[in-house]
Write a structure and sequence with these properties.
By secondary structure, this protein is of the alpha+beta class. The chain contains 10 helices and 20 strands. The strands form 6 sheets. It has an 8-stranded antiparallel sheet, covered by helices on one side. A 3-stranded antiparallel sheet has the order 3-5-4, covered by helices on one side. It is globular.
């Protein structure tokens, strides 16, 4: 009996010791840091997790340095190389950085892939509608006349000389706007910086352009903890509701383009009004996603969410698919490897690509 009591006591002691070690492991081995800054006209948010707080903090500092550097380089009105190209590019060759050349080449790729639905040469058209750098301060656009838009609708192009690392604009009416791809590129580069610090996982969000990675799942004794990132998709007609939630495992990117992000209303007399929920049936919603072929806001979709391997790809495709519309946009997505989409049409239907047929999303807005 005495031996049995001693054995039971040892079992209890070792059990409590093991539980204590497990609690210490769970509480002391993970550090999470989240920060937010305003760059390129939107809020960038970085959330990172690692085993050492010092390492996570150092990684965050390096990530923000890279994000700020690229934001200046890729600003179309700033003092960086893209801004210089827009100011002097029609008159003379302008020296470009490796990053600007990389993004311009990617923009050209998606321009060709989408047959012009994505086009970075529309800077002056975007400005004509009032979607300028001051949008966050004013919140109201303007109605350009057809005569005002006509010069910007002529053939537009840009030229890159890889040997001299210079760029030129084909026409004085051309201005490069990388707003539909630059944020995705920056997110990808920030992810690269964070990965170099061997963090467990991270999420980078630039105004809805999101990429995550989960390289080192936590191990608790013999058990491995794996959890997906849960990314909410905004309801395009009710800012208080969600369309649904997507679970993302491993390394993946997500981007949404919608007519509710930068928009205003106009009535039949040409009066303009701030964008509000819900829609006013007597007014027309006008938004910043311009169809480069018409010079006017694209019609047919009200939201396009793209899931892709990189944030650059998701960013560019969300714009291209929005402009292409339901049928052509869905066909483009289905033709690309590892790319999926959720589209919301202007009559309230929710359309999903073949790889997302099983997700728990509604089939129409409600």
């Amino acid at each position: 009996m005495q031996r049995r009591r001693v054995s039971l006591l040892k079992l209890i002691v070792f059990g409590l010791l093991g539980l204590s070690l497990l609690v210490i492991y769970l509480q002391g081995q993970v550090s999470v840091v989240q920060e937010e800054q305003y760059l390129l006209g939107t809020y960038f948010r970085i959330k990172a997790q690692g085993r050492s707080r010092e390492r996570v903090v150092a990684a965050m500092a390096a990530a923000w340095r890279e994000a700020r550097r690229l934001s200046e380089e890729l600003s179309r009105t700033g003092s960086g190389p893209l801004g210089e190209l827009n100011r002097r590019g029609f008159q003379e060759p302008v020296t470009l950085s490796d990053d600007v050349i990389t993004v311009l080449e990617a923009a050209q790729k998606y321009r060709e892939l989408s047959h012009g639905a994505f086009d970075p040469t529309i800077g002056k058209i975007v400005d004509s509608w009032g979607f300028t750098q001051d949008w966050d301060r004013t919140g109201v656009g303007r109605l350009p006349t057809s005569e005002e838009l006509q010069p910007f609708l002529a053939e537009r192009d840009f030229l890159i000389d890889a040997v001299t690392q210079t760029g030129r604009l084909s026409d004085p009416h051309v201005e490069i706007d990388l707003g539909g791809i630059a944020k995705g590129y920056i997110v990808d580069r920030v992810i690269e910086v964070l990965r170099a610090y061997e963090l467990d996982n991270a999420l980078v969000d630039a105004g809805g352009n999101i990429r995550v990675f989960n390289d080192h799942p936590r191990r608790v004794l013999w058990w491995e903890e794996r959890r997906p990132f849960r990314i909410a998709v905004q309801h395009p007609r009710n800012e208080q509701k969600l369309l649904g939630v997507l679970e993302i495992w491993g390394d993946r990117a997500l981007a949404t383009s919608g007519d509710y992000q930068r928009c205003f209303f106009a009535d039949a007399l040409g009066n303009i009004f701030p964008c509000r929920y819900p829609d006013d049936p007597e007014k027309t919603r006008l938004h910043h996603i311009i169809d480069p072929r018409t010079g006017a806001p694209a019609r047919g979709l009200i939201s396009a969410t793209i899931s892709a391997p990189t944030a650059l790809e998701a960013d560019a495709l969300s714009t291209a698919v929005f402009v292409l519309g339901e049928q052509r946009g869905l066909a483009l997505v289905e033709s690309l490897p590892k790319v999926e989409c959720i589209l919301v049409t202007n009559d309230g239907r929710i359309v999903r690509s073949s790889g997302l047929k099983d997700i728990n999303f509604p089939t129409e807005l409600r």
